[in-house]
Every structure is written in structure tokens, then in C-alpha cells.
Design goal:
The complex is a heterotrimer.
Chain A lengths: L29 H5 L4 H29 L14 H37 L7 H23 L13 H4 L4 H28 L12 H33 L12 H35 L6 H14 L15 H29 L8 H24 L1 H7 L3 H31 L5 H27 L14 H31 L41 E4 L4 E4 L2
Antiparallel strand pairs in A: 1-2
Chain B lengths: L5 H4 L19 H21 L7 H21 L7 H28 L25
Helix pairs in contact in B: 2-3
Chain C lengths: L8 H10 L12 H36 L1 H8 L4 H26 L3 H32 L21 H25 L3 H32 L4 H8 L13 H5 L33 H37 L9 H25 L3
Helix pairs in contact in C: 2-3, 2-10, 2-11, 3-10, 4-5, 4-11, 5-6, 5-7, 5-10, 6-7, 7-10, 10-11
Bound molecules: protoporphyrin IX containing FE (HEM) and copper (II) ion.
Chain lengths: 559, 137, 358
């Protein structure tokens, strides 16, 4: 029990001892990591895993962009064969979505932070947690197989009927997705149970940090939506293996049903990606503005609202797929409702900064970038949700730009911001703030240079997933490619800053930013059991008692 | 070290039992048996029901009986009746999402189904290996 | 620890730090929290299961809505009796499972092991019957989707001993369990005997199920066959069935377990002429074939859930044989029970939706 109150019973802690016990030094050896049940270590392993996946996806992305430097009107003179190009963008999408972005924030940062923020020793089912991680590894192996067995060329959406005929390793990829789905489900299940049953005394629902509300809402989606993806992938694999025909029009099956099945998961899945990011931003905004969050309950409720409304709009991906007219209208109308809770959040974040004392350090710069980019991404979603404009914009670069603004400009940027924010807690090392801000600036500029031209390309009719294009598009494509290279540089800088801190960073204090949530009450890095002395559960956004102590370089909570 | 407060000592999981209270709730045997026989009876009923021609109504009839059976299983065998309300909410909410999924998809399919055209001629190999096994005679 | 409401401080510390019993995981405060967490987790898992199956129910609904005639035609190939028997078997296994939960709460270990064994046995019977159903259909060429073979009157059965194939894994398990039992007997280990007994019984139950299935399937072939039951519903399509010669079938009532190939002819009346009439264009890959795809997907995924359930019930038997369960620690039994009832729950819908279409 973490909230032990009797000081006499805590003989095992020597806060003054030179070498504090922390989760990194608690035990050593390969197996102490591979078989660990400690949520913090599992979170760190996920972190390494998802970042490697991101690197892989990133390389594939650069291949796409480099290929598009020229119009490639003569397929045989292009850098990549058309066939190869199809495989590259398919794997880029699939790796980024299933291996990186969906597990990124919940499984890596969430795993590390959730029990600490909640004030418990661990998640409810530590073994299941480790199991999720190994499912992720297994899924990754299937994906790597489809990478090296080359030929997966269906796009990350696996649309039938093409995926039925495709010669690529569709079965391996679908099974990979199936396995990753279960990894995601078990993480979500674990988090829901932890938050419901393991809140220590004093931690009421409305004393939970907003990050936890966000992760909780995400978990609801993971549990409700992912099983449908699981069965869809299984049916698709059966389609390939046994020719069952459920999605195959040659056999009187229904290919549009496949899209319904797929998007019933995959639209809610975009909220699996963005909700935890929004949670991070809520934390970052308030901590680095040193001011209580504006509209705590509205943000909390809007997370849950997004999770639930997210299930009502999947049809907006299928407006041009042959849906019935009535359904398109219904889905278009519903799509507009989901944007309301997102807008509430943006409004509240800005309200939080208003009259706050904003410290412009790395995490905050990332958070500001997020607000800017996410807003663009969200607003362009409305153009796509409107039936008439989507008829024109569907399957063009406009869609590509839209979802990169929300996924990369939103989730990835928030992930990086959160990573910098909690890095001192996770590793016990401070990073170079100038380097961090530099990385954020390069990424911000590079990102916009990459994707703003794509909005223009899309409205002018450049279709997505094409290996060649009309020469008149070349300038915009080249701008985009330059932006992508810049983005790559920015990400490398961020990586270097983090790596540098591991070796040369100064020791992180307990509470370097002045946060009021529980993770700042335990040492950096946290001890094996998270809290060596009892945390007092209070208002997570009450900054009135937080003061800076120049001697330790740390903030602390006044008694 | 924080000062001990009343907050820390109160048990957050109070269900009317004490801290070490017994939370198990054994079902009486007669109840288990009664439920089982009721389920058997309903099974017979649904089989019997299927011998009539009720036309369109029939699916709904058999679904209704199945739902009663499922209700019995959930309420008694899974002792949801005595369980925390949250668990009941959770499992029923799953049905709402199933309804949503089926509802929208079916509604849409009603609209576009005339456009679906079956074309088995496109199957390149219509005589698959699995049935090429010797059929004697 | 200052308030009076709380249990005495010493007690609390005691619980939380020193005498954390082995069955209570270190990160939980007390038995009830552990139980609640496990149970909530299981209910959420069941939610994912419901949604998982919903995909197939959706496929079913879409297709039935579009081609109701296919469902009428095809369900005549499904043996109502076998379905009903299996429903009964699963309901009974739910009863024994619920009883097992009760026994674990009351620490009646003998009853507990007995009830778990009975559940396992029922599961095995269910699979045995299912094996007969599947192999019978495969013999007729009733494969999913593009492998479907149009049914023609008098066409011969395939002689592939599908049932035999399906029995091999069960046979291997049976032998293994018997050997285990012998080992337990020789080493006179009470624990191993407690485990091995139910396993042997359960594995044998599979063959009981196979026998049961065969008998019922054979019965069906004479007398009023399912095909003629179908004939009531769609009059002319099967009207010549009455004249169909049953004598041939009586001689070889079912697929032979050992595959010693007598030729068995189809017991379903679809004359070649009929397959060409517009009403019977259901008898082809995109029609009946797709029905069987849905049938195999639904029942197959369900059967895999049964197998998974059997694995965890076996695990429970081992734990029970070590006397691990008592009124404060019976969560595993309870949660596996919930899972098992859900599998039953799904079958409760599958049975009328697949077998009872008229
Ligand atoms: C603010 C609310 C949002 C609205 C109204 C919205 C609307 C849409 C619409 C209508 C489309 C379909 C465009 C088409 O294919 O023609 C779309 C595509 C997409 N959106 Fe959003 N979106 C929103 C937020 C998000 C978020 C937060 C994410 C992810 C973090 C996201 C990720 C995607 C992706 C990945 C696609 C493309 C899928 C594909 O076809 O490959 N969207 N969005
Ligand atoms: Cu969407």
C-alpha cells in the first residue's frame, strides 16, 4: 500500500543515503528487465520499442518524399518502382499507426506515469502488462516479416477487394494487426481497472490529473473498438486463406461492409491517438504556466465525450465508397458534433495560459506548437466532414495533410513534449533546454513546410498514394520534401538532446518544473515502489503552495 | 512526511462489509438448479417454436427467447444481480455499442445493396483443391 | 491512523506489509480490492468478447437480410437435434461451473474439482458433437465460400476421414492423460491423482460426444430427415424427397470414424435438375457457400473459445488440487466462470440463429 501514513513503519528508506534506490538500479541484468513486472520498466521498454518503430516509419517516410522529388512520369526512370512505392507507403502507414502512434503515449508514458500519478504501487495486473508488451513485440515481428517478405501493398487500411487479390503478405500483416490489437486492449483494460479499483484514499475522480482522465477515456475506446478490428482482421485472413467470401463481391460478399468494420475501429482509433496527447497538453499547459488548469471539469468531461461521440462518425471515411445517401448525410452531420469537445479543450488551454506565468521551456514550446498544429488539423477535418467538399477532397493530399496535422502535429508533438517534460522524472537527468527548444523550432518549421503545401496540392487535385504526378505540382512537392528533410533533422536534434542528457545531464531534482501532481512528489527517478513516503493527495492543479527552492534547484510543496 | 489525516485511513472500498469482511456470496443450490431447468425449458420452447411458420416474426421470436435465456445466465449464473452496479453498466453498455455498429451498418446496407453485384465468373480457379479428393465412384 | 472508524493501526500495517498472504499480490491492499480488480477486469474482457463476436453477427445480419432464402435452404443441412443437444450440454456445463464457484467460496474442494471436471467433460462432449457435425458437412462438400460444392442428389460422400482427423488430437490427449494418471497412481501422489482423474474423464467425454453425435446424425438420416423438414417450408424444392430412397443410407448411416470407405450418398435432396431452376440458385458458392462461411466462422471462433476455456479450467483444477481457493481467494474460479458463461451466452444466440431457421 503506497499511502502508508505511519512514519515509524518506513524503516527501509534512507532518503539521505548517498545512493538512493530507484527503479533503474533496483536490480540489474537482462532478465531483470525482460521479466520485470514493474510498470516503470515496462513503460521504458515500450518507449524504446515505439521510438524504434518511429525511426523505421520515418525512414520509409523519407523514401516516399525523396521519390516524389521528381514527377516520375516515366516509371522506369523513377527512383522507386511503382510497385516498391506502393509497398513503402503501405508500410509507412501501417508501422506508424499500429506500431508507433497507438501504443506511443498510453503504453510508454501512460504505463510509466499512471500508477505514480494515481499514487499506487503498480497497475492492477502487472503480468498482463508485461504480456501486452510481448504481444507488441510479437506484432512487430509480424510487421517486420511483411517488410522483409516485401510486397504488402494494400495501404494501411487493407481495403477489400484489393487486399483479397494482392499477392503481398496480407495474412502476416493482418495477424500482426490482430496481435497488436490485443496488446492495446490489454493495456486499456489494465488502466481502466487500475483507475477504478486502485485509487488510494483521497484520490477522488476529480482529483485525478487530466492526463489520467485522458488515458482513461482512451482505454474505453481501446476496449470497445479494438475487438472489432480484431475480428475484421481475422475475417480478412480467413478470406485469404479459406476464400470465405464475406467481403468478396465475386462471392456475393460485401466489400463496403469491410469498410464499415474497419472504420468502426479506425475512426475511434484516431481518438486513441489524440486523447492521450490532449491529456499531456493539459498537464504541460498548467505546469508551465504555473497556473491552475482552466475548466478542469470541462476538460475531463470532454475527454469522455470525445471517446463516446467518436463512435458515431466512422462513416465520414466512406462518403465516396458507395454508401447510401441517407447514411452519408447522417454521418456528415454527426461528424460536426465531435469537433465540439475538441474545441472546448483548445479554448481551455488558452484560458489556462491567460494571466499565467508562462515559462517558455522545451515542453511548453512543444505544447504551443501542438495547439497551433492541432487546431489547423481539426479545422481541416471539418472540410472533410462536410459532404460536398469531401467529394472533391477525398483521397487527395488534402486528407494526407489533415491527418498529419492531427497525428504528427498533434500526437507526435505532444508525445515529444511529454517526453521532455517527464524525462527528468524517468531518467533522473536534466536535458539541455536550449537544445530542446531548438529541436522544437526546427520541427515546427519543418512540419509546416512539409504539410502546408500538401493542403494546396490536395485542393488542386493531387491524389494520394500516387507514385507520379503532373509537372505543375513539382514545386509544391519539392517544398514538401525539403520540409520533410528538415523535420528529420529536427527529430535528430531532439534525439541527440535526450541522449546527451543521459551522459552529461545534471541530476534532476524531484520537481524541476513546479508540478503539483503526485509524480513530482517522488524522487527522480522514482524508487521501485514509487513512493518512499506517503504522498498527500490534493488538488493536482493547486499551484499556490508550490515554491521554488534555489538551494536544490527544485520546486517543493509548502506544508 | 505528511501528517496523517483522516483521509488516509478511511477505506475507499466500502461495500457495507468491514475491512476484512467476507465478500463472497455463494449461490444456493436450489437456485442454480431452478435456473438450469428454466433454461432447458426455454430451449425446448425455442425448438418447438421453430416448427411453426411464423414468417418474419420468427427471427424475432427466437431472438426474444434467446434473450430471456441470456438474461437468466447473466443474472444468476454470472450473479450480476448481486454484483456491483458498475459491472452491470459495463456489460450493458457493450450491447449499446453492438447495436450502434449493427444499426448503422445495416441501415446503410439497406440503401446500397442493389448496387452489389455478385460475379463468381471472376473467380479464376473455381474448382479448388480441397474438394478434388477422390469421390469414389 | 488516527480515526476510530479505521481498523486498528497495528492491524493495518500488519496486513499491508508483513503478513501479505501468498495469494494476495503485493500491490493490492486487501483481498477484496484484489477480487474487485480481477472481476472488473474480467467484465471488461467480456465486453471485448461481445464486440469481437459482434463483427460476425453483423456479417450474419447483413447477409441474412439480403438473402433470406439462402438461410432457409442451408439451415436444412444443420442438424437441429445436434444443435439442441449441444445447447443442453453447454447449459449444463454452465450449471456445473456456477456450482464450482459456490464450492470454491465454501472451500468444498472435492465438489469444486468434481464440478470443474464436469464442466470440462461437457465442453469435451460439445466439441465431440461439433466434430461430428463438421466432418459430416465436409463429407458432403459443404465448405465455406469458394470451396463450397453444389449439392446434387445422389452424389457420393467424400471418403476423406475428416472425423478421424478431428479425433487425433483428442486421442493424443487422452493417451497422455491416461499415462499421467498411471504415473500419479504409481507415485501414489494424491495431488496428481486429483488432477489426472478429471482430465482422463474429460478426454474420454470427447469420444462420448462423438458417439452421441454419430447416433443422432444417423437417426436423422432415416425417419424425418432435416432435408425433408426443410421441404415443408419450401414446398416444391424438396417435394421429391419423399420418393428418395432411404434404404441406401440406412446401410451406412454416417461418416465412418475410421474412414473405411463405404460410399455414402448424400442424404439431402437436391436433384440436378433443380440446381438449374432460378429458385434454387441458392445452391452455389456465392449463396450457400457464403452461408457456410458465416456458419464456420461463428461456430469455429466459438469452438476456439471453448478450447481456451478448457485450458483455463484445467489450470483451475490444478490450483484446486492444491487447495488454493477459499472464501477470500476464489477470484480465478469466479472469473473463469464468467468467461465460461459468456461462451454459453453466445451459443444461446448462435443456436436459434443458425439451426432453427424455417
Ligand atoms: C476535429 C475533428 C476531426 C474531424 C472532423 C476529422 C474528419 C476527418 C474526415 C472527414 C476524414 C476523411 C477524409 C477522406 O478520406 O475523405 C478524415 C481522415 C482522417 N483523419 Fe480526421 N478528423 C478529425 C480529427 C482527427 C484526429 C484527431 C486524427 C488523428 C489523430 C485524425 C486522423 C485521420 C486520419 C488518419 C484520416 C485518414 C485515414 C485514411 O484514409 O487513411 N483525424 N478526418
Ligand atoms: Cu475519422
Amino acid at each position: 500500500m503506497s499511502v502508508v501514513t505511519n512514519p515509524v513503519t518506513m524503516p527501509a528508506t534512507h532518503p539521505e543515503a548517498g545512493k538512493e534506490d530507484n527503479y533503474l538500479t533496483h536490480s540489474s541484468g537482462f532478465l531483470s528487465w525482460a521479466l520485470t513486472l514493474d510498470h516503470k520498466r515496462i513503460g521504458m521498454m515500450y518507449l524504446v520499442g515505439v521510438m524504434s518503430a518511429f525511426a523505421l516509419g520515418g525512414v520509409l517516410a523519407l523514401m516516399i518524399r525523396l521519390h516524389l522529388w521528381t514527377p516520375n512520369l516515366e516509371a522506369n526512370q523513377a527512383w522507386l518502382l511503382n510497385k516498391t512505392y506502393n509497398q513503402v507507403f503501405t508500410l509507412h502507414g501501417a508501422v506508424m499507426v499500429f506500431l508507433f502512434i497507438i501504443p506511443s503515449i498510453p503504453a510508454a508514458l501512460g504505463n510509466f506515469l499512471l500508477p505514480i500519478m494515481l499514487g499506487t504501487k503498480d497497475v492492477a495486473f502487472p503480468r498482463l502488462n508485461l504480456g501486452s508488451f510481448y504481444l507488441w513485440i510479437a506484432g512487430a515481428i509480424f510487421f517486420l516479416f511483411s517488410l522483409f517478405a516485401t510486397g504488402l501493398d494494400t495501404g494501411w487500411t487493407f481495403y477489400t477487394p484489393y487486399s483479397i487479390e494482392s499477392q503481398g503478405p496480407v495474412i502476416a500483416a493482418t495477424l500482426g494487426v490482430f496481435i497488436l490489437g490485443f496488446s492495446s486492449i490489454f493495456t486499456g483494460l489494465n488502466f481502466i481497472v487500475t483507475i477504478n479499483t486502485m485509487r488510494p484514499p483521497g484520490m477522488t475522480w476529480f482529483r485525478m490529473p487530466l492526463f489520467l482522465w485522458a488515458v482513461y477515456s482512451t482505454s474505453i475506446i481501446q476496449v470497445l473498438a479494438t475487438p472489432v478490428l480484431g475480428i475484421t482482421m481475422l475475417l480478412l485472413a480467413a478470406e485469404k486463406l479459406l476464400g470465405i467470401g464475406i467481403f468478396d463481391s465475386r462471392l456475393n460478399g460485401d466489400p463496403i461492409a469491410f469498410q464499415h468494420f474497419f472504420w468502426f475501429y479506425s475512426h475511434p482509433a484516431v481518438y486513441i491517438m489524440i486523447l492521450p496527447a490532449m491529456g499531456i497538453i493539459s498537464e504541460l499547459m498548467s505546469v508551465h504556466s504555473h497556473k491552475g488548469i482552466f475548466g478542469y471539469r470541462m476538460i475531463a468531461y470532454s475527454s469522455v465525450a470525445i471517446a463516446l461521440f467518436g463512435f458515431l462518425v466512422w462513416g465520414h471515411h466512406m462518403f465516396t465508397s458507395g454508401m447510401a445517401d441517407v447514411t452519408t448525410i447522417v454521418f456528415s452531420a454527426l461528424t460536426f458534433t465531435v469537433s465540439i469537445p475538441s474545441a472546448i479543450k483548445v479554448f481551455n488551454w488558452i484560458g489556462t495560459m491567460y494571466q499565467g506565468t508562462v515559462s517558455l521551456n522545451t515542453p511548453m514550446v512543444y505544447a504551443l506548437a501542438f495547439i497551433f498544429l492541432f487546431t489547423i488539423g481539426g479545422l481541416t477535418g471539418l472540410f472533410l466532414g462536410a459532404l460536398s467538399t469531401d467529394m472533391h477532397l477525398h483521397a487527395t493530399y488534402f486528407v494526407i495533410a489533415h491527418f498529419h496535422y492531427v497525428m504528427m502535429g498533434g500526437t507526435l508533438i505532444a508525445f515529444l513534449g511529454g517526453l521532455f517534460h517527464w524525462w527528468p522524472k524517468m531518467t533522473g537527468k536534466m536535458f539541455n533546454d536550449f537544445g530542446g527548444i531548438l529541436s522544437a523550432s526546427i520541427i515546427f518549421v519543418g512540419f509546416n513546410l512539409t504539410f502546408l503545401p500538401q493542403f494546396v496540392l490536395g485542393t488542386r487535385g493531387m491524389p494520394r498514394r500516387y507514385a507520379s504526378y503532373k509537372p505543375e505540382f513539382q514545386l509544391l512537392h519539392q517544398l514538401s520534401t525539403i520540409g520533410a528533410l528538415m523535420l528529420g533533422v529536427g527529430l535528430l536534434v531532439a534525439l541527440l538532446v535526450l541522449l546527451h542528457s543521459l551522459f552529461y545531464g545534471s541530476k534532476a531534482p524531484k520537481n524541476p518544473w513546479g508540478g503539483a501532481t503526485l509524480e513530482w512528489e517522488c524522487s527522480s527517478p522514482p524508487p521501485h515502489d514509487n513512493f518512499s513516503s506517503a504522498p498527500t493527495v490534493g488538488d493536482p492543479y493547486d499551484f499556490s503552495k508550490i515554491e521554488f527552492d534555489p538551494k536544490t534547484g527544485s520546486y517543493f510543496k509548502k506544508k | 512526511m505528511s501528517a496523517p489525516t483522516a483521509d488516509h485511513t478511511s477505506d475507499s472500498h466500502d461495500h457495507g462489509h468491514g475491512h476484512d469482511g467476507d465478500f463472497s456470496h455463494p449461490m444456493p443450490i436450489w437456485m442454480l438448479l431452478a435456473v438450469f431447468f428454466a433454461l432447458l425449458l426455454l430451449t425446448v420452447a425455442t425448438v418447438y417454436q421453430s416448427t411453426f411458420s411464423l414468417g418474419n416474426l420468427e427471427v424475432w421470436m427466437s431472438l426474444a427467447i434467446a434473450t430471456v435465456k441470456a438474461g437468466l445466465v447473466i443474472a444468476f449464473f454470472m450473479h450480476l444481480l448481486w454484483d456491483k452496479p458498475l459491472n452491470a453498466i459495463i456489460i450493458f453498455s457493450s450491447l449499446i455499442f453492438v447495436a450502434l455498429f449493427l444499426g448503422f451498418t445495416m441501415m446503410d446496407a439497406q440503401g446500397y445493396r442493389e448496387n452489389l453485384i455478385m460475379n463468381p465468373a471472376l473467380l479464376e480457379d473455381s474448382q479448388p483443391a480441397a474438394v478434388k479428393v477422390e469421390l469414389s465412384k | 491512523m488516527t480515526t476510530a472508524v479505521a481498523p486498528s493501526p497495528t492491524d493495518h500495517e500488519h496486513d499491508a506489509h508483513h503478513e501479505h498472504p501468498a495469494w494476495l499480490a503485493h500491490h493490492f491492499d486487501d483481498a477484496e480490492q484484489q477480487f474487485d480488480a480481477g472481476k472488473l477486469g474480467m467484465w471488461i474482457f467480456l465486453v471485448t468478447e461481445v464486440l469481437f463476436f459482434s463483427g460476425m453477427f453483423c456479417a450474419y445480419a447483413l447477409y441474412r437480410n439480403r438473402n433470406p432464402e439462402v438461410f432457409e435452404f442451408c439451415s436444412t443441412f444443420l442438424n437441429e437435434k445436434l444443435g439442441a443437444i449441444n445447447t443442453g450440454v453447454l447449459l449444463f456445463s454452465s450449471l456445473t461451473m456456477a456450482w464450482a464457484v459456490r464450492a470454491s467460496q465454501l472451500k468444498q474442494t472435492k465438489t469444486l474439482i468434481g464440478m470443474l471436471g464436469a464442466t470440462l467433460g461437457c465442453a469435451a462432449i460439445f466439441l465431440g458433437v461439433k466434430a461430428v457435425e463438421y466432418s459430416h458437412k465436409w463429407g458432403l462438400g459443404l465448405f465455406p465460400g469458394k470451396y463450397y460444392v453444389s449439392q446434387v442428389e445422389g452424389a457420393p460422400h467424400s471418403t476423406v476421414p475428416y472425423l478421424w482427423y478431428l479425433c487425433i488430437p483428442a486421442l493424443i490427449l487422452l493417451v497422455a492423460f491416461v499415462l499421467y494418471y498411471v504415473y500419479a497412481f504409481v507415485s501414489a501422489s494424491k495431488f496428481h491423482l486429483r488432477v489426472a482423474g478429471p482430465l482422463v474423464v474429460a478426454a474420454s467425454c470427447f469420444f462420448g460426444g462423438v458417439k452421441l453425435g454419430q447416433v443422432l446424425e444417423a437417426e436423422e438420416s432415416h425417419g424425418d430427415s432435416h432435408a425433408s423438414a426443410g421441404a415443408d417450408a419450401h414446398g416444391h424444392e424438396h417435394s421429391d424427397h419423399a420418393g428418395h430412397d432411404h434404404a441406401k443410407e440406412v446401410s451406412a448411416p454416417s461418416v465412418n470414424l475410421l474412414g473405411e470407405a463405404e460410399v455414402v450418398t448424400h442424404d439431402v435432396a437436391v436433384s440436378p435438375a433443380e440446381t438449374n431452376t432460378p429458385e434454387s440458385n441458392v445452391n452455389q458458392k456465392g449463396m450457400a457457400g457464403l452461408f457456410f462461411s458465416i456458419y464456420y466462422c461463428m461456430t469455429g471462433v466459438h469452438a476456439f473459445h471453448i478450447l481456451g476455456g478448457m485450458a483455463v479450467i484445467t489450470w483451475l483444477i490444478v490450483k484446486s488440487a492444491r487447495f488454493e481457493f477459499h472464501s477470500k481467494y476464489y477470484g480465478p474460479v469466479d472469473n473463469v466462470g464468467l468467461y465460461w458463461h459468456l461462451v454459453d451466452f453466445i451459443w444461446i444466440y448462435l443456436f436459434p440463429l443458425l439451426y432453427l431457421i424455417t
